[in-house]
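Blinded run. Sample ID left blank on purpose so nobody reads anything into the name before looking at the predicted structure. Input follows.
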Amino acid sequence: MKFRSVALVFIILFSFGGLAACGDSTTTVLTLATTSPEMLTTSSNPTTTSAPASNGDAQTLAPTPTPNAAYTAIAIQKEKFATQSASHITMGALSYMATMTAGPTPPTSAARPFVALNVNGNRYQDTIGSYAAKSGNTFYVIDLTVTNTSSKIVDLRQSFFRVLAGQTATYAFSDKSYGLDKEIKNTILGPGEFARGELGFEVPRDQTITSIEFTDASNKVAVIIK
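Blinded prediction complete.
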């Protein structure tokens, strides 16, 4: 009986030991299975570690997995992806958000004047017909062509003209212009129509006229006289 009891105890202990060993083996297999085989592998020179066993002998543990070539390539690809994302270019979704730099703005064309003034000639003279200029003054007479370049009518009046000497001195139309033989008449110009004639301005004798202006209710055109 004693022999049978001892044998039964030995069998029971052996069975528990076998189950314990199987449990450890199963745990190891499950742990390795959770690691992607594409990401991790055992190197040709695996790194091993030793730990003291319970009986004093050294126990060799499983080799430590190291990144393989595929894992390294994936890491590099992710790094490049992050760099491109910082540049506002998402390659994975093919979404491009690059900042567009606007090119130079084309120059805006100057507004076309509603009338065109062409100076055909100019002169200084002391009298217009029977009218003499005041002391120290003279008449500045200009031969002018006025063309309506707009799509609307233009009210052409002698009083809408003035001449300038430099930037500040201005002189209005003189009513003595009525004595000019080729006086420009007050008229209405339709689109594309023109009128030609002379205008007189009484100015100081020491002034040099540099430009002429035509101004109606809302527009102004100036022409430099050469």
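Unblinding after everyone has recorded impressions. The CA atoms of residues 129 and 223 lie 27 Å apart.
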